Amino acid sequence: MSRAEEALALYYVDHGTSADTVHHLERGIQAAKVAIDRKGDVSAYHATIGNLYGELAAQSGVVGKMRYGRLASASFAKALELDPKNPLAHVGAGIGKLETPGMFGGSVVEAIAEFRTAQSLDPACAEAWIWRGSRNAASDRSPKRIGPSPKRSR
């Protein structure tokens, strides 16, 4: 249920209002809490609620980003405590480190390390490849020359 609410929230990011998005994220969080209350030792449940908190942080102001960002980080930490080989928990932890300002503990280097760990655990983990690739593309701002080298004779 929480994954369905997350999907609806992501739909409303592009096609609805912020209120619609927040509504579905909050419903997803409630569903994930129920799942965790029933079976709290499942890493995937904690990773899912971490994703929901992270999305809610993205939809929030400064105070909300701090509040929900901390909750997302704690959820991913719990997911990794339960299953250190959960690639999606590593991706979520990496996103958190990427989105958190350095003065509050964020680190691009640590984020990329989390994405690499996820890739090594599951080479087919698309999320790890996408986030690592987007981070590499964003950090590589040097202009690229396309075509023959200027030193090459014609």
Kindly describe this structure.
This protein has seven helices and no strands. Helix 5 (87-99) packs antiparallel against helix 6 and helix 6 (108-121) runs antiparallel to helix 7 (126-139). The chain is mostly helical. Helix content is 73%, strand content 0%. The chain has two domains: 1-83, Serine Threonine Protein Phosphatase 5, Tetratricopeptide repeat; 84-138, no CATH class. It is globular, with a radius of gyration of 18 Å. The chain has helices at residues 2-15, 18-38, 43-58, 62-82, 87-99, 108-121, 126-139. The model is unreliable at 141-154 (pLDDT under 50).
How would you classify the helix and strand content by structural class? mainly alpha
Q: Which spans of ≥5 residues are poorly predicted at pLDDT below 50?
A: 141-154
Gap between N and C termini, in Å?
A: 63 Å
Q: Which percent range fits the helix content?
A: over 70%
- CATH level 3 topology of the largest domain: Serine Threonine Protein Phosphatase 5, Tetratricopeptide repeat
Beta-strand level of the residues, as a percent range? under 5%
Q: Based on CA inertia axes, which overall geometry fits?
A: globular
CATH class of the largest domain: Mainly Alpha
Number of domains: 2
Per CATH, which architecture of the largest domain?
Alpha Horseshoe
